[in-house]
Amino acid sequence: MNVQDLIGGLLGLVLTLAVFSYLLGDNALFRLAVHIFIGMSAAYVTVVVAYNILWPRLLRPVLQAGGWDLVLAVVPLILSILLFARLVPRYSILSSPVLSFIVGVGAAAAVGGAVFGVLLPQSSATINLFDLQSAREMGKDSSLLLANSSLILVGTLSSLAYFHFGVRAKPGTKPARAAWLEWLSQVGKGFIVIAFGMIFAGVYAAALAALIERLSSMTRFIYSLFGG
Amino acid sequence: MAVILCPFCARENDDEREICQYCQARLKPIQIDSESPGGIPGLPQVPAQGVFDENESGPGLTDRQQPPAEIPAKHASEPESSDWLAGFRGQISTQDLSARELPIENSQPPASKRSDLDAQADEGSDFLDFPVDAGMGMDGSTDSLLLSRIFGDDLPAGPSSQAGEPGFQDRPHNFPIDQAEFAGEIPAEPAQDPGPGKPAGADELSWLRDLQSQFHEPEDLSAGEQEEGWLDAGQLDPGYSTVDGERLPDWVEEISARPLDGEKSSITADPASTDLPAWLDSIRSPATPQNILDIPPDFRGQVEIAGPLAGLQGILPAEPEISLGRKGAAYSETLPVSEAHRLQAEIFNQVIQSEGKNRPLPDRYLVTSQKIMRLAIACIIFLAVLVPVFSLQYLELVPAITPGEVLAASQIVNSIGNAAPVLIAVEYDPGFSGEMDAALAAVMDHLMIQGAFLVFISTNSSGPMQAERILELSNQVGTHQYASGADGSDYLNLGFISGGMAGVRNFAQNPRAASALDLTTSPAWDHPALVNVAAINDFSAIIVASESYEKARLWIEQVTPILQGTPLVVVSSAQSAPLLRPYYDASPQQVQGLVSGVIGSVHYAQAIGRRGIAHIYWPSFNSGLLAALILIVVGGGANAMMTLVSAQDGRRKGGKQV
Fold this sequence. Notes:
heterodimer; A: 228 residues; mainly alpha; B: 658 residues; alpha/beta; two-stranded antiparallel ribbon; 23 helices
């Protein structure tokens, strides 16, 4: 074991135990470990952005380019500098066009992706579940596929019905959903509970995997430290 | 016995009574004896026929029609009538006074106004008709006026009228002509000194005669010259004062001279102190307007000095009390707070003061039930994870059936040829590397076995570092040794792409322009394996490794609309797998393969016949899941038992059921 591995292993062991000390309650060791992680993350992000973005994509083209390339390279630099105007309220309006451009592009990408990447394909997929002819052509059992498709359809509709809280108010009566909608929402609640149970199991499995990885790493280090 | 019907309350009274025993209204008219000193010559006594019973003849009129030779000046003002009638008289006079829009303060109009009034009189306006026809009674007296108002047209005319004898002018006046009533009409001339040898009343009545000529009794005017002496100034009631030629009754002067906040009036404003009839007092509600409105006592004695109710006392204020010119009330500087308010203010003050003070932290108990529970659960899970140390071999059994999504992913990777470019998006944080490394290592191992050219990219700042780490771990699993270098490099780390969603979209549309340099800032696309890669569809496969559903969805949303036949495989954490499953189950599929968590990695390695990192974790993972299952079952059962026990206790004690 070289020195680098020894220092890294020791740091990992100590910081892991510091985080585990939270089992005894909030303490200085835990806070120290958290602060170290936050500081390291921020520093690492800064280095990555400076090394991967600012220098190769912003500054170096300005320094190395010429002619029209220089003009094109200066534009991002100017826009980036204008963002700093946000720090001075008097000149903050100078950064508005840049921010507007960023927000507009982000919104367009988000809306376009949501509509064409999720909404329409998922709606189409739900409809196509009942394409039994294609299922037969693919050699699938149509009755089983129909049952599966029906279950998915009921789950989808009932889950959507559960989140429908609109009621038509009538004077003198307590606002309530229609009976059939209430029944459907109760079915949807069952589907949602099952989904949440799956998510909880997944969260526990992920945390358990992380714990196993840490314990495995610690035991390996200790074994290598004392057992050679 | 004959009875008399009260004209006011219509109740029967003994005929001997002059005043109604119920409402105290006068039952018999005032009998003014012309022979008596108080009698007024020429006063026609009105027989109130409607008042008396049929059996009773009214008082004889013929004997009283003869006016006395002269009128004692003071008799007219002497209260021969009762007090209640005097009160009515005063009210009527005051109302009539105000009806002519003559405030008491202005009861002495200036000369200009008098001239205007004269002009109006000359024009014969209707304004002057009122005092003669309606303002006075049929005999010109106030009592008759009152009776005429009570009985209306039923009141018989006076004998003089009936006889066609002196009408207006020859009616003697047992009550002084209300100067206020005629204040607006009486010009100043009568107050002027008459000429020598000429009766004062002659000039004074010249204007009145002019007016009379415009009325319907010109003959009475001429005939009245002989009786005009009854209007002589010398015979006028000395109770009138003359100011600037205007004569005002004493009571008006008293009202005018009375200060607002002043003294007790002769007319008591307070109903409680008024000498009310018994019947009225019995039905009078204790909640008088004064009580309701809480009129100050000093206001009750106030006399109205303006408006139609001028001269009356005890009038309810028409305006808010605040608008009256009074001395402002003195208020205490100390707020009147109740005891509850004081306590609340004290508590609030203490809270504010305690904000600036350092308070000792509450005692921390080293051992609490929550802490014990937490430690117990942690110990159980730790023990469960460490159990594989004792070589429980049966926990190492792996499932024989491979899930379809894992099998599809392995088939996709299996179809990738040697040196085929594969894009791998490493989108997880170091905190999830324990699970994600295990999941991705199996796929990476397979890709390395296939000899694919790996291209790493990430929208996460820690992604490039994670890519290097997973590559190192994968190298440890198998015999393959992927390395990066100028010569014969096996992978390319494009590093971090900024812009988030827009950056991914930009990269999907034009990878070369979006990420021209690799992690070492060297030109990225010069490698022979990437020569033919100009778009994202030129990759053999795209693998997205993310612990977060949002990051995986970002790639699915931005890339799948562009992809044309290029498979997309997602390696995810177990917590996001249920949310990503619909993309795999969709038809057409948006995700062609899905490997999630340790379980997916084990399945994947099992499918390709390898043992990866996940197999190292697998025994501990199984025992940990089993421990969690036991804890959930035991904890849930214990909770249910406690609930049942507490419910039984509640029923036994008669308390509220749980």
